[in-house]
Amino acid sequence: MHKNFTHKVKVYYEDTDAGGIVYYANYLKFLERARTEAINNIGLSNKKIKDNFGALIIVKSCNIQYKKPAQLEDELSIRTFVKDITKTSFTMMQIISRKDEVITEALVHLVFINKLGKPTKIPGLIYENFKPYFCDSIKI
């Protein structure tokens, strides 16, 4: 069984439109924060990855499904796990919930690139530290 990394977010006024509903682009910010905290949870950071490995993690694509709207002052949980991995990229599944209700699902394809912007191999330390978050069906 894989582990989920969970990050909590509270919806503030600045996150919403005039009707008190979270503006669609702000979900991407919530997801980014959860991925950043997942990296911090394994003892790294985007800055450490850049400084120590000469690599950056960039979003190649994102498929997001908005199922129900989040609203002002909602407390949200974002569950994140690694769904698929290759030598240079991985796909994360991220699920935003309000209490036990799933409101948004996203499949985010991330790529490791070097300073020239070319795909580069995922450092072994990162791969090993993310192993507990791999979905059971991952094959390398």
Short description:
The chain is of the alpha+beta class. The chain contains 3 helices and 5 strands, in the order βααββββα.
Helix content: 10-25%
First and last CA, distance: 17 Å
Number of helices: 3
CATH fold title: Thiol Ester Dehydrase, Chain A
Stretches with pLDDT under 50, minimum 5 residues = none
List the helices and strands and how they pair.
Blueprint: E1 5-10, H1 24-41, H2 46-53, E2 56-66, E3 75-85, E4 89-98, E5 101-113, H3 124-130
Antiparallel strand pairs: 1-3, 2-5, 3-4, 4-5
What would you note in describing this structure?
- A five-stranded antiparallel beta sheet has the order 1-3-4-5-2.
- By secondary structure, the protein is an alpha+beta fold.
- Strand 4 (89-98) and strand 5 form a beta hairpin.
- The protein is elongated, with a radius of gyration of 16 Å.
- The mean pLDDT is 91.
- It has one domain (5-133): Roll (Thiol Ester Dehydrase, Chain A).
- The two termini are 17 Å apart.
- It has helices at 24-41, 46-53, 124-130, and strands at 5-10, 56-66, 75-85, 89-98, 101-113.
- Helix content is 24%, strand content 36%.
- The longest helix is centred in the first third of the chain and has 18 residues, at 24-41.
Record keyword descriptors for this entry:
alpha+beta, Thiol Ester Dehydrase, Chain A, about 35% strand, about 140 residues
